[in-house]
Amino acid sequence: MNYRAGRPARSAIVAFETISKSALAAACVLAAFALAACGGRGNPDLSALADGTVLKAQIAAFPTKAARKVRVGVMPDAGALPLYLMDDVAEVIPFQSAKERDAALEAGQLDAITGDLVSVIAHQQKGIELRALSVTESRFLLVAGPKFREGNRGGKAAHYNVGISENTVIEYVTDALSADMNGAVLDKISIPQVPVRLEMLRNGQIPVACLTDVMAWGLLSDGFRIVRDQAGTGLEPAVLVVTGELARKRPDDLAAFRFRWNEATDKINANPDAYASLLLEKVRLPNSDYPVPHYRGITLPTEAQVQSVIDWYRKKYGLDRSVSYADLVIR
Question: What is the pTM of this model?
């Protein structure tokens, strides 16, 4: 069950509902007489107001509008769908590779990205503060063509190239999912652009690739198969990321962004079929029968999930700056 956490606070606004303007005026006069009668001391008798007004607590959503839109760089995966329902608070900017997205982020052209914990750590090593705001519904797969076989060949490990994007969530997931291939060894080759990686796998130029499920979906009906799946592993590396500058200097915009994300996920979950065509259009799905996922509201990854990525990054690339769970998420 998905746990919805971190929803923006709601403030109770006490308002008077009146039957008419004249009734409200009369109520004010009665209140003044009541206050005067007690000489400003003790509790005034407001029973005379009962017939003229009704005191009612109304819950107003806060906040609902950003002063400036949050510019969000997205990759072609289903986790970005809620953002396309948030055009009053978010400007969605699509990218085809993580490197292109990150270059725009570092140039100050983006306030947020649909990214991953690996990217958060990598940027913090450069002195660029990023924080994970929520996990997203991005599922990763190792997909293989017909030539791939797990296990040994004649007692020797069989080596296969696997297409990845280096120093990204794709590499982290590949390492995590391919730790035991029953004797087969996956040799990573960098193919940063997702469409290129997909087509190289389809055309037999590489036997295995790590892809999001939304990109791999169309291959499965063509004889390709999932050899490893993130689902059920407990891994949650894909996250919605915001810059430290957005968090510090534009708290109202961030609050509105969080509020709208929760609203958007609720809308999609209430009627997912209504958003299938939008997913197909905006995420550029290669196959039209991809099911709309169930989306979570603002939900942080757990400390264990974050620590798994920190440990992998430290072993793989080293850490010039130490990082912790508190450094990588925004509460």
Answer: 0.75
